[in-house]
Design goal:
- With about 160 residues, this protein is mainly α.
- Helix content is about 60%, strand content about 0%.
- It has eight helices and no strands.
- The longest helix is centred in the last third of the chain and has 22 residues.
- About 40% of the residues are buried.
Length: about 160
Amino acid sequence: QILISQGAKARVVDLAIQEAMRQNADPLLVLAVIKQESRFRTHVTSRVGARGLMQIMPGTGRGLGVRDSNQLYDAQTNLRAGIRFMKSLWGQFVGGDMSALAGMSTPSSRVRSAVAAYNAGPGAVRKYSGVPPYRETQGYVKRVLAYYDEFKQSMSA
């Protein structure tokens, strides 16, 4: 409800939650990433060419099985690929089940690294052994995790 009140379309929020659950990903983290990446707009393109809800670069999309980069504007296609990518980063930097995040009062440095990798790429996170010293990425991690906390608190209210 909090997202709908902030202008997100119910259909997009529902699709994101359903796809996160289908892939056994944390729906609140998926929603937090989408809020930061696109503000729930399906047809947005970043200045560097990232597309759709989860702002996937065409090359990353190809690596995730999306051959036509215009398909990244399709909400379902974008969510499938974006969540798969997020889960692969989780596996690289955190390991285990994404549901562990819900029980953490403070996200671990490994969780922060996985979130940072979604923004800066896994290579940058490995290079710096954690969140890179890029202002954009540091702000990104703070905002995504703040949105996650906001959504988590709204669920328990």
